[in-house]
């Protein structure tokens, strides 16, 4: 089974988020792997170990620092890592999803995993867009996945512990239907995967794909960002006026 | 094309979610400024769809739409939207709407704005306020073009403004649902047996800042001293430090205690959805820019362990 994981490198929200012009100052922020993508890498490896196949992790390298993330994915049990390079450090979800879809369609995936959301999904998440661009079914907010033959059975979470079980056909070599799922893996499934033979794999080569430029915009981005009243697209939030905050 | 606003409603076990009413209420407010109608869109089977204050309600009934199925719902909504060309399509930024909004955007090439907290019309143009980066930033977005897709965070608008009894117009399936690759199998009910955090008057709620499972005990001690129960944000539950029955927020439970004491929770929009109507919110967080300080009544930018230990001594 050909398993692909699409990942997103995003500005860390643990630190200050400096603003330049009408967007974040992408040169001055730290980038981290979207935490939901960490979970979907883990979920993909669990599926591989249970059902066989290979895991390919693919992401857009926004600031030439994706290698660390990809090496980590290889160390976690992925078999192959691919990065798409670009000069657009501020590429939005639509742009990244288009580029990822172009790269992934040549990989003939049976099943694709993507983090259910990311904190910078201003224009929506990558998972459902990949599904649309690749014409594959999508189920989001998935907390467990089991693949038997050409059928994936997943649990999707709604709210308050309520969920639902769905089945979805995968392609399994036939090149027909495939399935995209956004995984939010729960702790009770984490760590089950056998970690043997993974330790020495962090130095595997990363495949580098085509370079993309600014003119390659994808439809559906909420373009035409309007300058805010203070001429910034992003404005820092002010505190609730009546909040009595004690600073230590 | 029309100037209508389509509200894609959502329901479970025959009951519409609050966010559906919220969006209908908001669309009523905006529709006249666009010169169009607020249209509630209901997909389901055997639903009583005449519960909205919309200008009109469209009801698509089919056995395959009885439960939420992203593939079936997506197909129907795409066909409806392409046929009727509304000016604006509203989804909830929920387990349901999140499967559909970005997907519809990629299918139609129309812009999508997620994490929306507010919408307004300025000089005839739609402006959306979106809460990104875990609530640390607000983006003001003016989507271009003749149609926009906006996914609204639950709890952003009043619920009651959307309640009414507008007659529902049942329409035929606009597209075939043959050959679906996705099938709904069964519902999963929440696990019981733990305390019900929605019934508590006082909650001590912990977030990622608690650091590790070994520190839960401190929160338990403080809760006991206060006559409270410990609840948590999603990362704490995902890490397995507390059971899911204790999770507050969008994918957890909605609580409305008299006291909500937050230790090490930054206040991402997903968490606020579950607790922002608590009577008294007190937040302790080391990051003075944490979004929780926008909603807390009292706050301290301090180390949660120091505060908890100090409080324990005083109690």
Structural features, described:
With about 250 residues, chain A is of the alpha/beta class. Chain A has helices at about 35-50, 65-75, 95-105, 125-135, and strands at about 1-5, 10, 20, 25, 30-35, 55-60, 80-85, 110-115, 140-150, 150-155, 165-170, 180-185, 205-210, 235, 245. In chain A, the strands form 3 sheets. A 9-stranded mixed β-sheet of chain A has the order 11-10-9-12-8-1-6-7-13, sandwiched between helices. In chain A, a hairpin with a 2-residue loop joins β3 (about 20) and β4. In chain A, α3 (about 95-105) crosses α4. With about 325 residues, chain B is α/β, with parallel strands linked by helices. Chain B contains 7 helices and 17 strands. Chain B has helices at about 20-35, 70-85, 95-110, 215-225, 235-240, 270-275, 305-315; strands spanning about 5-10, 10, 15, 40-45, 55-60, 90, 110-120, 125-130, 135-140, 150, 170, 180-190, 200-205, 230, 260-265, 280-285, 300. A 9-stranded mixed β-sheet of chain B has the order 9-8-7-10-6-1-4-5-11. A 5-stranded parallel β-sheet of chain B has the order 14-13-15-16-17. A two-stranded antiparallel sheet of chain B has the order 2-3. In chain B, β7 and β8 (about 125-130) form a beta hairpin. The longest helix of chain B has 17 residues, at about 20-35. β11 of chain A pairs antiparallel with β12 (about 180-190) of chain B.
Describe the structure concisely.
The complex is a heterodimer of chains A (248) and B (315). With 248 residues, chain A is α/β, with parallel strands linked by helices.
Overall outline of chain B:
globular
Fraction of residues in β-strands of chain B = 25-35%
**Series of H and E elements of chain B:** EEEHEEHEHEEEEEEEHEHEHEEH
Q: How many helical stretches of chain B?
A: 7
Protein topology:
The complex is a heterodimer of chains A (248) and B (315).
Chain A: E1 2-7, E2 9-11, E3 19-20, E4 23-24, E5 31-33, H1 35-51, E6 54-61, H2 66-75, E7 80-86, H3 93-105, E8 111-115, H4 126-134, E9 138-148, E10 151-157, E11 163-169, E12 179-183, E13 206-212, E14 234-236, E15 244-247
Parallel strand pairs in A: 1-6, 1-8, 6-7, 7-13, 8-12, 9-12
Antiparallel strand pairs in A: 2-5, 3-4, 9-10, 10-11
Helix pairs in contact in A: 3-4
Chain B: E1 5-8, E2 11-12, E3 15-16, H1 18-34, E4 38-44, E5 56-61, H2 70-84, E6 88-92, H3 97-108, E7 112-122, E8 125-132, E9 137-141, E10 148-152, E11 168-171, E12 182-188, E13 202-206, H4 216-226, E14 229-232, H5 234-238, E15 259-263, H6 269-275, E16 280-284, E17 298-301, H7 304-314
Helix pairs in contact in B: 2-3, 4-7
């Amino acid at each position: 089974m050909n398993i692909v994981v699409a990942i997103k490198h995003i500005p860390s929200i643990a630190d200050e988020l400096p603003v330049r012009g009408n967007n974040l100052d992408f040169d001055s922020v730290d980038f981290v792997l979207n935490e939901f993508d960490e979970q979907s890498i883990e979920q993909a490896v669990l599926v591989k170990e249970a059902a066989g196949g290979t895991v390919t992790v693919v992401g857009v390298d926004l600031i030439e620092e994706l290698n660390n993330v990809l090496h980590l994915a290889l160390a976690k049990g992925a078999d192959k890592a691919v990065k798409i390079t670009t000069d657009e450090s501020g590429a939005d979800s639509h742009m990244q999803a288009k580029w990822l879809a172009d790269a992934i369609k040549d990989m003939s995936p049976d099943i694709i995993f993507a983090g259910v959301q990311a904190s910078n999904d201003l224009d929506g998440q990558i998972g459902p867009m990949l599904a649309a661009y690749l014409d594959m079914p999508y189920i989001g907010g998935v907390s467990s996945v089991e693949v038997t033959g050409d059928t994936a059975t997943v649990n999707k979470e709604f709210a308050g512990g309520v969920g639902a079980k769905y089945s979805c056909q995968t392609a399994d070599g036939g090149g027909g239907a495939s399935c995209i799922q956004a995984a939010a893996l729960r702790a009770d499934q984490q760590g089950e995967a056998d970690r043997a033979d993974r330790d020495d794999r962090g130095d595997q080569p990363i495949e580098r794909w085509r370079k993309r430029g600014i003119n390659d915009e994808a439809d559906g981005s909420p373009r035409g960002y309007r300058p805010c009243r203070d001429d910034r697209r992003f404005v820092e939030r002010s505190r609730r006026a009546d909040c009595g905050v004690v600073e230590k | 094309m029309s100037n209508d606003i389509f509200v894609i409603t959502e329901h479970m076990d025959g009951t519409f979610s609050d966010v559906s009413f919220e969006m209908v209420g908001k669309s009523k407010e905006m529709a006249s400024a666009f010169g169009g109608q607020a249209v509630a869109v209901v997909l389901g089977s055997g639903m009583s769809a005449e519960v909205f204050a919309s200008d009109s309600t469209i009801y698509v009934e089919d056995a395959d739409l009885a439960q939420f199925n992203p593939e079936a719902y997506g197909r129907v909504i795409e066909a409806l939207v392409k046929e009727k060309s509304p000016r604006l399509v509203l989804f909830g930024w929920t387990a349901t709407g999140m499967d559909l909004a970005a997907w519809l955007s990629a299918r139609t090439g129309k812009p999508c704005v997620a994490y929306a907290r507010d919408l307004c019309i300025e000089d005839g143009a739609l402006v959306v306020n979106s809460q990104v980066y875990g609530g640390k930033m607000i983006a003001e977005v003016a989507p271009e073009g003749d149609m926009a897709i906006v996914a609204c965070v639950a709890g952003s608008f009043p619920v009651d403004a959307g309640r009414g009894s507008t007659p529902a117009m049942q329409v035929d399936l606009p597209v075939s649902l043959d050959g679906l690759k996705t099938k709904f199998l069964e519902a999963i009910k929440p696990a019981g047996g733990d305390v019900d955090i929605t019934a508590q008057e006082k909650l001590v709620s912990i977030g990622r800042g608690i650091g590790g499972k070994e520190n839960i005990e401190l929160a338990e001690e403080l809760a006991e001293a206060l006559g409270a129960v410990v609840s948590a944000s999603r990362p704490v539950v995902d890490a397995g430090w507390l059971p899911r029955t204790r999770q507050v927020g969008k994918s957890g439970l909605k609580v409305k205690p008299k006291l909500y004491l937050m230790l090490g929770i930054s206040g991402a929009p997903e968490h606020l959805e579950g607790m922002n109507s608590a009577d008294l919110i007190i937040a302790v967080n080391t990051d003075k820019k944490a979004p929780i300080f926008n909603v807390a009544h009292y706050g301290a930018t301090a180390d949660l362990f120091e505060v908890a230990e100090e409080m324990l001594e005083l109690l």
